[in-house]
Amino acid sequence: MPPAAPPLLTARLAAVAERVPAGRPMADIGTDHGRLPAFLVLSGRVPRAIGVDDKEAPLAGARALGDTLGLGAALEYRRGSGCAGLAGVDTVTVCGMGGALVARIVAGARAAGATTLVLQPNEGEADLRAALGPLGWRIVTERVLTDRGRRFIVMSATYGSPEELDAVDLAYGPARAHVDPAALAARLAADDARLRALVARHGPNPALTIQLDIVAEARARLTRSAR
């Protein structure tokens, strides 16, 4: 019998889990310890999950977790690279990697059957946003959160109706997509203060001026979207 409580997720992975559509099979690429797909199956949110990693050592631990939870065929861990060999999954999650690498991985998500992406880049989020539209994906939600003293972005996207993003959207995500406007506002305030401190220390320069203008426009869009 599986334990009564699901394995605990960090705040970062819990935010990813919240965006995975219920009742549909999913695959977690770069699954590492495998707790995200295990949680989703054990909690009943998804009927089937696959954890994929290109390293055997973390997969051994993930498989041991699956065996301990007794989830059987509903939870599978396999060695692989990206979305290669996947089929019949509705949702693909990719967490804890750079934005450019996430973009390369999700280039194969549609061929695996995915209609939803839930992504948590550790850096390079602007590069990831820039790549999604040309691949046919539209950003639906974004969330800024802090986990263990570090800021993260979690975004979800659906296939179809991609939109063109400008420099402000690429830097901070479309204002209309943010599900926690207060968290984005706090990030923008912190970025504004950081940039102004750099100007005070080193003097104005074109690059800092552009960044300050982007922050100012992002704040204005966030205010308008809240009306």
Rg calc:
19 Å
| SS strand fraction | 15-25%
- Strand arrangement within the widest β-sheet reads 3-2-1-4-5-7-6
Could you say what the CATH topology of the largest domain is called? Answer: Rossmann fold
Broad CATH class of the largest domain: Alpha Beta
Order of helices and strands: HEHEHEEHEHEEHHH
How does the helix and strand content classify structurally? alpha/beta
The description of the largest β-sheet is: 7 strands, mixed
Counted by DSSP, the helix tally is 8
Report low-confidence residues grouped into runs of 5 or more: 1-7
CATH superfamily of the largest domain: Vaccinia Virus protein VP39
The percentage helix is 40-55%
On the 0 to 100 scale, the average pLDDT is: 94
How many β-strands, per DSSP?
7
Distance between the first and last residues' Cα: 50 Å
CATH architectural group of the largest domain: 3-Layer(aba) Sandwich
Total domains, how many?
Answer: 2
Shape: elongated
Please give the structural blueprint.
Blueprint: H1 11-19, E1 26-29, H2 35-42, E2 49-53, H3 56-69, E3 75-79, E4 91-98, H4 99-106, E5 116-123, H5 125-132, E6 137-147, E7 150-159, H6 167-172, H7 181-202, H8 206-225
Parallel strand pairs: 1-2, 1-4, 2-3, 4-5
Antiparallel strand pairs: 5-7, 6-7
Description:
The structure is a single chain. The chain is an alpha/beta fold and 227 residues long. It has two domains: 11-164, 3-Layer(aba) Sandwich (Rossmann fold); 166-227. Helices cover 42% and strands 22% of the residues. It contains eight helices and seven strands, in the order αβαβαββαβαββααα. Strands 3-2-1-4-5-7-6 form a seven-stranded mixed beta sheet, with helices on both faces. α4 packs parallel to α5 and α7 packs antiparallel against α8 (206-225). The termini are far apart. The model is unreliable at 1-7 (pLDDT under 50).
